[in-house]
Write a structure and sequence with these properties.
Distance between the termini: 14 Å
Number of strands: 4
CATH architecture of the largest domain: Up-down Bundle
Radius of gyration: 23 Å
Shape: globular
Strand content: under 5%
Strand order of the largest sheet: 1-2
């Protein structure tokens, strides 16, 4: 396979250079997705807000990101590739700079900055996938998606560790001092993104064909409110519980009804805003379901496990981040190798093996105690990420490979939308399970006055039971996925890339 191809204007494209700039750019913006979790105590102090308020920085990011993913299909089809990539990076840069300069008496402005960042990420993630499918032919598609898996897996996991390192103390290098401030979290990402923007002017090209289609306002409104309310309802579960009418039940019902209307409307359109007919493809649907189950298990545990390490084990945010860092590195290492294996053998064997490893790495978490050695937790988490790396991008490549070049952008948007919903659903289910089991096993308040030490021990035991139930539920997602994986096509399913199809 040649290192060069031609873009939509007939110009030569160095596919490796373009892919490198794409991956570095997406990696840089995805760091911000999870970086503020570690900084929440510092933000609460700086802005004088409580924990529920500061949590909105994460909630609103996930909502804006999820809302933009369905829109990405329209943008990818309507706007030239280079223009869209540079616009998204510029939007992210504006949001990051706005966050950096936000005064501490304007928390709302920091939320606006997070929305701008999330909108950029919501466009860049699907764009990375569809461009990867276009740059590389069917025989190398798994490797390309594997490199994408390196970004998807490592960036969100490294974010909290990097934030913890920044907030631990001042750091001086090359005569420049990086202060242990929440502002430095935004500052450290800016130079990299700016360099990527400059490099993109020289190596990024229009590789996706565009069509002069008009925006269907009704579809945009239905998509925004439908997916927005659904994600909002899931996000509120951890704070208010499943039974809260105003914060959870009504938003979920309204979101589901609007999405149902949205899907019905799309099925009647000649040129749908989000083409739901891609789910008529059996291989695409099965692999998308499997990726969603993997996301539910991965994101849910990534949210629960740091809480366990900090609240039960008493670790600092930096220490807990370092405990989980080898798992992120493992995912980054294995993703390209899994992609290469997919190119030769297809997704079925990878899916069955990967989900089995995920089960083996998750079930022992059920037996963790307050005295479990850190190395044991690190080993199990690393094993989990090994399994997830074997399934995540190979299954995504299989899903996209089952579609025609004309529906790749729509399929990418649909696949990523399902992943966003699965991530939010998985987090909501595991968080509510943990809280429910903990509450049901709490000691009586009377015991606190009679024997404070026994009450404290029983509180720890109740909390541990909550964590154990969540980890067992996460393992059940993987068990269901293994069963479904046996229905996959045994070989490799691939349609030509857009570049191949145009030859």
């Amino acid at each position: 396979m040649s290192d060069t191809i031609t873009d939509t204007h007939g110009k030569s494209v160095n596919r490796l250079a373009m892919m490198l700039v794409l991956l570095v750019g997406v990696f840089s913006v995805m760091l911000m997705q999870t970086s503020l979790g570690t900084a929440q105590p510092a933000l609460m102090k700086a802005f004088d807000v409580n924990a529920s308020t500061v949590q909105w920085l994460t909630t609103i990011f996930l909502m804006a990101n999820g809302i933009m993913v369905p829109v990405s299909a329209f943008l990818t089809t309507r706007i030239p590739t280079k223009t869209l990539y540079l616009s998204a990076l510029s939007l992210f840069t504006a949001g990051t700079f706005l966050a950096f300069i936000t005064p501490t008496n304007a928390f709302w402005l920091l939320m606006v900055a997070r929305v701008l960042q999330a909108m950029a990420v919501g466009v860049l993630m699907p764009l990375m996938q569809v461009v990867s499918l276009t740059l590389f032919d069917a025989e190398s598609r798994g490797k390309a998606m594997g490199l994408g898996g390196l970004v998807v897996g490592m960036a969100p996991a490294i974010g909290p560790t990097l934030s913890g390192w920044i907030l631990e103390k001042d750091h001086t290098f090359l005569g420049f001092t990086l202060q242990n401030s929440w502002r430095s979290i935004f500052l450290i990402d800016l130079p990299v993104v700016i360099i990527v923007i400059i490099a993109s002017f020289f190596v990024f090209h229009d590789v996706l064909p565009t069509r002069n289609i008009s925006l269907n306002v009704r579809s945009l409104i239905e998509s925004t409110f439908g997916f927005g309310l659904l994600l909002f309802g899931f996000a509120m579960v951890s704070t208010h519980g499943w039974g809260d009418l105003g914060w959870v039940i009504l938003p979920l019902i309204a979101g589901i009804l609007i999405i149902a209307e949205f899907m019905w409307h799309q099925s009647r359109m000649d040129k749908p805003f989000l083409d739901m007919s891609v789910f008529k493809n059996r291989q695409f649907t099965i692999t998308t379901i499997l990726v969603s189950l993997a996301m539910m298990s991965m994101i849910g545990v990534e949210m629960i496990l740091p809480i366990f390490l900090q609240n039960i084990r008493g670790m600092t945010p930096l220490h807990s981040g370092l405990t989980l860092l080898p798992g992120a590195l493992m995912m980054g290492l294995i993703s390209p190798l899994a992609g290469a294996f997919y190119d030769k053998h297809g997704a079925k064997r990878l899916a069955i093996t990967g989900f089995t490893i995920l089960i083996i790495g998750t079930l022992p978490l059920f037996y963790m105690t307050a005295d479990t050695p850190s190395i044991y937790i690190t080993a199990l988490y690393t094993l989990r990420m090994f399994g997830i790396a074997m399934v995540m991008m190979p299954l995504t490549a299989s899903a996209m490979g089952a579609l025609s070049p004309e529906t790749a952008a729509q399929g990418t948007a649909a696949n990523n939308t399902m992943r966003q919903i699965a991530s939010s659903l998985g987090t909501a289910i595991l968080a509510s399970m943990m809280q429910s089991v903990t509450d049901n096993n709490k000691p009586s308040s009377a015991l606190k006055g009679q024997d404070p030490l026994e009450w404290a021990q029983k509180m720890i035991d109740a909390t541990l039971k909550g964590f154990h139930a969540s980890f067992l539920l996460a393992a059940s997602f993987a068990i269901v996925a293994v069963i479904i994986a046996f229905t996959l096509h045994s070989g490799k399913v691939n349609t030509p890339s857009k570049m191949e199809a145009s030859k």
